[in-house]
């Protein structure tokens, strides 16, 4: 079985993430969306909330599994027996950091390769950080995230829409 992992914080999952997920799902027998439980950050949503949001947002894609992980990505890759890590690139500025990660991960886990997918042009500016900032001030995030996620974000910020 050809299995890949698309890791990230997904705080929140955006239309850009969903674009990469859908395109990746078409390339592999199974795609595992790995939600990082990063203990050094203070996310808006808990890891359980992010997993549930992703499960709902990808429910129509049959070859996707959503799971959380903490620690090193390479350990999660080995645990799931994945052979590819999928990473999205929005702009050239992402590439240098992502290349360092890919090379480090390959040294730690030579059996796994990294594949980069460029974001669709309509999502090349989009990041979860930007979405959180706009939502925090009550701005319209309907073009950035699915409706249900927008509602959950506004609720987190105690904003009535």
From TrEMBL:
Belongs to the bacterial CoaD family. Substrate binds at residues 9, 41, 73, 87. It is an enzyme of class 2 (transferase). One of its GO terms (cellular component) is cytoplasm. Its main location: cytoplasm. Pfam families: CTP_transf_like. Residues 5-133 form the Cytidyltransferase-like domain. Keywords: ATP-binding, Coenzyme A biosynthesis, Cytoplasm, Magnesium, Nucleotide-binding, Nucleotidyltransferase, Transferase. GO terms for molecular function: ATP binding; pantetheine-phosphate adenylyltransferase activity. It is found in: Cytoplasm. Its cofactor is Mg(2+). PANTHER family: PHOSPHOPANTETHEINE ADENYLYLTRANSFERASE. Its EC number is 2.7.7.3. It catalyses: (R)-4'-phosphopantetheine + ATP + H(+) = 3'-dephospho-CoA + diphosphate. The record marks 17 as: Transition state stabilizer. Reversibly transfers an adenylyl group from ATP to 4'-phosphopantetheine, yielding dephospho-CoA (dPCoA) and pyrophosphate. ATP binds at residues 9-10, 17, 88-90, 98, 123-129. Pathway: Cofactor biosynthesis; coenzyme A biosynthesis; CoA from (R)-pantothenate: step 4/5. The keyword Transferase applies. GO terms for biological process: coenzyme A biosynthetic process. This is Phosphopantetheine adenylyltransferase. InterPro entries: Cyt_trans-like, PPAT, Rossmann-like_a/b/a_fold. The keyword Nucleotidyltransferase applies. Homohexamer. It comes from Lachnotalea glycerini.
